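WARN retry 2 of 3 for item q-0093 after timeout on previous attempt; input resubmitted unchanged.
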Amino acid sequence: MTGERELTCVVADDHPAILDCVTRYLEAAGMSVPAAVPDGAEALAAVLRLRPDVCIADVAMPQLDGIALARELADAAPETAVLVYSGSADAALATEALGAGARGYALKDGPLSDLERAIRTVAAGGVYVDPVLAAVLAAPSRDTPKPLSGRELDVLRLLAEGGSYVEIGTALSVSPDTVRSHMQRAMTKLGARTRTQAVALAYRHSLLG
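OK item q-0093 returned
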């Protein structure tokens, strides 16, 4: 999705300073920001109208929060990757966001270069979990999932690093369909509804450490 084409991003945040700062940074990084809005309802309308590559959504916004927005867009605009942008390194919140359909969870405490990397990762079809949050998700869990095969773990690990199904297939010398099959089996074993939730749960069970 990235290639040489300019990425388009809708930015949604109810803090004017963050909204302005992120917009300016992304435009300076060569991305297009056709809409920068202060709440989730406006973000939903903007995404449905503009169909951007990525929607950067504050986790806590008026009218429609980032998680609810991700859930709405997963059905209404699946071609737009939702990246939840949060000040909270809360494992439960991140797992909920990824389970709702967000493709990434980035922290506002990190440098804007991390946000840019997160945007490019999810735009390319990968999954992004902030490194600080990944450490939190890797805390031991009392629930034990069904054992994953080595290849299923490889697929999850490469997906967590931002790889698309095509890139993962190339790295593992298998077809994208085979990668998809491994992913589906991993999701079933982990009890995940989406591949991003599968990555979060794999971190939570210390499988990707």
